Amino acid sequence: SVDVWxxxxxxxxxxxxxxxxxxxxxxxxxxxxYTTLCLPFNVKLPENSTVKAxxxxxxxxxxxxxxxxxxxxxxxxxxxxxxxxxSEAANINLTITTExxxxxxxxxxxxxxxxxxxxxxxxxxxxxxGNKGIGFYKANFTAIPANKAYLPSENIMNAQGVMxxxxxxx
Length: 170
Prior knowledge:
It is built from no helices and 15 strands. By secondary structure, it is mainly β.
């Protein structure tokens, strides 16, 4: 249900509400680094950006095959963003859009748009910079932060070990 607050009794004269339309989502990615993302709306990367977007089209053994997303990043999809600039952080604004987008067929990543708790430790993989470098490692924790993506272990064919390395295309 929705309530209307009109302050007709003049008991709270100090409140002031202002609604501002949001058209972009700011994002910073360190130089030569990665992050995961899942948003409840479609977004576009800025043109000529050093940031590239990928989805996990296959997870087998200890390799996670990444397929580049061109155009629009779909709502409610777990994706990986990479800053390809090796020396500078990327400070970008993802533009919110209502434009149609293609489905990420076979995306192995799962995204959450609100913090989710109750996962079993070591049953999911999360992006980390571990002892073998940047990749997806088995998570020791039982919660996934809001607007992030993870890889469920049941999405991996013939899982091997505790780390998944990236494969870009071939």
